[in-house]
Structure formats: structure tokens, C-alpha cells
Design brief:
single chain; 327 residues; Ubiquitin-like (UB roll); Rossmann fold; six-stranded antiparallel beta sheet; five-stranded mixed beta sheet; 7 helices; 16 strands; 19% helix; binds flavin-adenine dinucleotide; binds FE2/S2 (inorganic) cluster; FNR_nucleotide-bd; oxidoreductase activity; Oxidoreductase; Cbr1-like_FAD-bd_dom; 2 iron, 2 sulfur cluster binding
Length: 327
């Protein structure tokens, strides 16, 4: 156990093995971050006393200029003894549910598409998280990766994930080919979770971005006081990348309030409409972009196209969009 001092602010304990970011969030600090995976660069801090070890020295979230200036990624840095860091805390980043590390047993797995499988884990304690959040999963001695929850909080301690197999992938190799009996589950993380609102919502899921959008739609379905409709654009490269007819409707349970719109970018459309996620969104919301709040999850390229459409072209305020980029 060591101690992290925030310059001009509080001191927080850091348990063995924790990163600067995890320790800060466990203590309820508003530390800015997004992916917790070294990809986005949102969690940069300066270490002004003490030293740290870097988990992933080549993480793309840090530029050469950042490295020259002595900045580090809080999500990829573990303190070696006590240390002091400089950053600007943001009340908007205070975790709604502080993350915790716990053991999770694998209790089931089922294929959803040709390369997406749902994995269900169970913890002793209730599963506490908000729709749209994610957890870090790690296999003993193996990699540690972020995966979004596809279900909603529950007292049974169930955490469901919908994970796409990545050819040659370190973590997905374990999960698909040699599923461990249990993993370490650290969470919840993420600020792109469901917020209250009065406008209907549009969820845009690309590829493995399915899980958090399913969770958000299920969160609305489970709240008897939430009457919003959900327009769900689900993009894949081929028809085989999308679950069969009726799958989303049955799982989400929103009845007529769910408007599920699959779209396929490649030649193998299987009779589904053809286009990219941002094109499907542009066609759907033409002339009424302002009527909706937006939740989007998927690969960074897809997010760029959606940001260009919603923020730049349509001029919507950033507060109307929640993005989960899967680095
Ligand atoms: C917030 C978030 C939510 C996500 N949710 C989902 C989801 O619901 N479903 C899903 O299928 N995928 C999701 N992903 C992607 C997932 O985390 C993995 O990147 C993906 O499963 C591939 O992992 P892999 O180990 O099999 O592949 P690999 O190719 O071995 O690793 C891929 C990723 O691991 C990271 N990485 C690579 N090297 C290192 C290193 N040395 N140290 C630390 N990290 C490294 C990089 O981010 C890289 O993109 C999410 C990612 C993020 C950031
Ligand atoms: S939160 Fe650390 S790089 Fe994204």
C-alpha cells in the first residue's frame, strides 16, 4: 500500500497493483479519463515527486511530446512507493459507483454472431454499475482489457459481456479458446453511461460496440418511470456480424419503444440496408437531429465519423452525446 498526493488537493491510498487512475477513482476523486486502456490520452498527469512504473510504455495515448514533457498516463502507471501528481480534478468525473476489484466466476457463454460471444460472470457481491459502463477483466498472469457490460445492475452479482473474437488477440484468445474458471473483475468504469432525459435516444453500435448500447436500452426498459423510445442503429460489415432477427427485441424487452435498425457496410447484406453507421444515422435523423440524445460505441474510426456528423456538421452540444471508443 502506498499513498498518492494530488498537488494542492487530497492524499489517497493506493493498493498494491493499482494504477494512479484506479486508486484515485476508488477514493472517489474526479480524475478525467475515458478508456482506462492507454488509448485515448484523457488521463495524462505529471508526476512531481516519487516514481512510477509504466505498464505499457508504448501506449498510443501518449505522444512523444508528452513523454518529453514528463507526462504519464494515469491508467498505465503504478506508483513505486509514495508519490505526488499534478492534474486538474473535474467534479463531472467523480465515479457514480467507485470501482472495486473482485473475483468473478464464469457461469455461462453463448454465441451471438459468428464472432461475438456473450460471457456471463458472477461475483459474491451484487453487481453495481450504471447502464453503459465497463469493467476491466484480467486472467491471472495474463492481459487486462476493458469490456462493456450488456446487462444492468442486479443483486445476483451477474456481469454479462458481449465480446468479439480478435484473431491473435491476447485476451480474447484466453476467453474463447481456454476459458478460465474465474477472472479478476475490476469495475465499474466509464462516464458514457445512461443519463436521465426527456428526449428519445439514439444508440449507435458498431461491431463489438453492441454491449453498452444493449445495456443502455435495457436500463430504459427496466425503469418504469422512463418512457423514452430507443432508436438502435446496429452496424456490421456483413449480415453475419449482426444477431438474427428478433434477438435485440427479445433481449432488450422494450416492446414497441425499441426501433432496431441493422445496417451493413459490405457486399454481403443478406437483404439488410447497406451503409456505414454514420450514413444510417444521417438518413434516420435528417431534419430532426435536435430531437434526440445520442449514445455511441464502437471502433475509433466509426466514432470520428459520428462526431463529425453530430458535433461539427449538426452543431449539437457535446453534452448531448456519450461516446465509448473501443481502442
Ligand atoms: C472502454 C472499452 C470498452 C470495450 N468494450 C468491449 C466490448 O464490450 N466488447 C469487445 O469485444 N471489445 C471491447 N473493447 C475492446 C477490448 O478491450 C480489447 O481491445 C479487445 O477484446 C482485443 O483484446 P485482445 O487482448 O484479444 O487483443 P490484442 O490485440 O492482444 O490487444 C488489443 C488491445 O489491447 C491493448 N493493448 C495492446 N498491448 C497492450 C499492452 N502491452 N498493455 C496494455 N494494453 C495493451 C490495446 O488497447 C489494443 O487495442 C473495449 C475497449 C474499451 C477501451
Ligand atoms: S484513460 Fe488513460 S489513455 Fe484513455
Amino acid at each position: 500500500m502506498s499513498e498518492i498526493e494530488i498537488e494542492g488537493g487530497p492524499r489517497v491510498p493506493c493498493a498494491d497493483g493499482d494504477t494512479l487512475l484506479a486508486a484515485g477513482l476508488r477514493a472517489g476523486l474526479g480524475m478525467p479519463y475515458e478508456c482506462n486502456a492507454g488509448g485515448c490520452g484523457t488521463c495524462k498527469v505529471e508526476v512531481t515527486a516519487g516514481s512510477i512504473e509504466t505498464l505499457w510504455p508504448d501506449a498510443p495515448g501518449l505522444s512523444d511530446r508528452d513523454r518529453r514533457k514528463g507526462r504519464v498516463l494515469a491508467c498505465q502507471s503504478r506508483p513505486v512507493g509514495d508519490c505526488r501528481i499534478r492534474l486538474r480534478l473535474d467534479p463531472a468525473c467523480v465515479p457514480p459507483v467507485p470501482p472495486r476489484r473482485q473475483r468473478a466466476r464464469l457461469i455461462g457463454a453463448a454465441d451471438i454472431t459468428r464472432d461475438i460471444r456473450e460471457f456471463r460472470f458472477a461475483t459474491e457481491a451484487p453487481a453495481a454499475f450504471l447502464p453503459g459502463q465497463y469493467a476491466m477483466l484480467s486472467v491471472d498472469g495474463g492481459p487486462r482489457r476493458a469490456y462493456s457490460l450488456s446487462n444492468i445492475a442486479n443483486t445476483a452479482g451477474e456481469w454479462h459481456f458481449q465480446i468479439r473474437r480478435v484473431p491473435g488477440g491476447a485476451m480474447t484468445g484466453w476467453l474463447f479458446d481456454a476459458p478460465p474458471a474465474s477472472v479478476e473483475l475490476d469495475g465499474p468504469f466509464g462516464l458514457a453511461h445512461l443519463r436521465p432525459g426527456t428526449r428519445d435516444i439514439v444508440c449507435v453500435a458498431g461491431g463489438s460496440g453492441l454491449a453498452p448500447m444493449v445495456s443502455i436500452a435495457r436500463g430504459i426498459a427496466a425503469d418504469p418511470n422512463d418512457g423514452r423510445r430507443v432508436h438502435f442503429i446496429h452496424a456490421g460489415r456483413a449480415a453475419a456480424d449482426l444477431p438474427g432477427a428478433g434477438w435485440a427485441e427479445a433481449l432488450i424487452g422494450l416492446g414497441a419503444r425499441l426501433d432496431y435498425r441493422p445496417v451493413v457496410s459490405g457486399d454481403d447484406t443478406g437483404g439488410l440496408p447497406r451503409g456505414f453507421a454514420h450514413e444510417a444515422l444521417a438518413a434516420f435523423a435528417a431534419g430532426r437531429f435536435d430531437d434526440f440524445d445520442y449514445y455511441c460505441a464502437g471502433p475509433p474510426m466509426m466514432m470520428q465519423a459520428l462526431e463529425a456528423l453530430l458535433l461539427v456538421e449538426q452543431g449539437l452540444p457535446a453534452s448531448r452525446l456519450r461516446f465509448d471508443r473501443f481502442f
